[in-house]
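Human: Can I borrow your eye for a moment on a structure tokenisation matter? Separate attempts, laid side by side, tell us more than any discussion would. Could you pick a protein and write out its sequence and tokenised fold? No explanation is needed for now; the record alone will do.

Assistant:
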Amino acid sequence: MSAEVEEAVRRTIARYCQTCDDGRFDEFGECFAADAVMTVLGREVRGREAIRDWIAAAMPPEKRGKHVAVNTVIDVGDRAGAVRASTDYLFVARTEKGPRVTTTGRYVDTFVRDGDRWLFQTRDIHID
């Protein structure tokens, strides 16, 4: 069971990156539980729709690039539904001089099960 949970969590992390980068914000929102909380730069955004709307405003086409998520460590707890993960990331932006890494940091997440998927319950974005 643990390997299946870990794979589902990795899939959610990857979908977050790809849907954001592609501007598919409705699908991006579906990576989050209905009552999820995302924290970035000290600001909390609460609820799936609010998170979707926030990222759509923050990532217009000219600001999009590629999220690269690596070094994910997943902890499947002893009690049912207790899943935590931390993932290092970098963001590669399109600049006048070509692609450049503009942000690095770590995602610290908790997940909740929704059928056969694991969705973000919380996502704390720590920017270096």
User: Anything to note?
Assistant: The CA atoms of residues 88 and 106 lie 4 Å apart. The chain has three helices and six strands. Helices lie at 2-22, 25-29, 48-58. The radius of gyration is 14 Å.
